[in-house]
Amino acid sequence: MAAGALELLDDTVITPTLVDAVADCTLVLGCTARKRVVQLEELSPRQAAARALAASAHGEVAIVFGNERTGLENDELMSCHAAVHIPSVEDFPSLNLAQAVQLLAYELRLALLDQTPAVVEEPREPLASIEELEHFFGHLAQMLDDIDFHKGRSPMTIMKRLRRLFLRTGLEQREVRILRGIFDDAQRMSRLARKVTG
After folding, report:
1. What domains can you pick out in the chain, each with its CATH number?
2. pLDDT higher than 70, residue 57
3. What is the DSSP string of 4-41?
4. CA 177, 180, 186, 192 torsion: positive or negative?
5. How far apart are the C-alpha atoms of 83 and 31, rounded to whole Å?
6. Coil vs helix vs strand at 116
7. Which three-class secondary structure string do you get for 127-168?
8. Are residues 97 and 54 in contact, defined by beta-carbon separation less than 8 angstroms?
9. Quick check: 29 and 56 in contact, CB under 8 A?
10. What is the pTM of this model?
11. Which DSSP letter does residue 66 get?
């Protein structure tokens, strides 16, 4: 409990899901102490701080922590662009929540203090937010069903891999709109094909 930080608690927003909490973010980093089924790029706290600071120039950034007992759930990690792993000893891989938050906050502060004046970059198209990406993934899953893509393969496994692929790329809002337009056309052609063969 830091002196003078009560306004942070007073301004706390409680949401029902992680996706709701990070809906406007363009980069979400999830802290986890163990290897998961969800395969994500793994960053050290220092790497995470550098990436978060760089990404903050283009949109909202979130570093998320799970609860004290179990950490982040696999489905929560599915909404993260990368995982942050604190390299503690193998016998005791987990830190308590306050320690993990403090360590990441410290690395963020160091990254901010070490920041050199930024080179002026060409304006970049706005990145897609997590909310936009969740709609995108829902549309992608529906389109794959509509065109009968899976043919006996596990839709869940395919979607996990596709989520990982698209989260890695840093999709821009315009790119998401283009891809969703392609999905719409694929769905329309699928409906026409069913009418012809039906």
Report:
1. 12-114 (3.40.1280.10), 130-197 (1.10.8.590)
2. yes
3. T-HHHHHT----SSHHHHTTTEEEEEEE-SS--SS---
4. negative
5. 6
6. coil
7. ECCHHHHHHHHHHHHHHHHHCCCCCCCCHHHHHHHHHHHHHH
8. no
9. no
10. 0.78
11. -
Q: Closest Cα to residue 101, out of 113, 84, 114?
A: 84
Tokens of 91: 């016998």
**Statement: residue 120 has pLDDT above 50:** no
Which of 68-82, 90-104, 108-122, 127-141 has the highest average model confidence (pLDDT)? Answer: 127-141
Cβ atoms within 10 Å of 1's Cβ, excluding its own = 6
Distances (CA, A) of 167 to 87, 116, 136, 141: 24, 28, 11, 15
Q: 48-54: list long-range contacts, CB under 8 Å, 24+ apart.
A: 48/82, 48/84, 48/104, 48/107, 49/104, 49/107, 49/108, 49/110, 49/111, 50/111, 51/27, 51/82, 52/27, 52/108, 52/111, 53/108, 53/111, 53/112, 53/115
Specify the DSSP class assigned to residue 170.
T
Residue 122, pLDDT above cutoff 60: no
- Give the neighbor-by-neighbor strand order of the sheet with 82-84: 42-43, 82-84, 25-31, 60-64
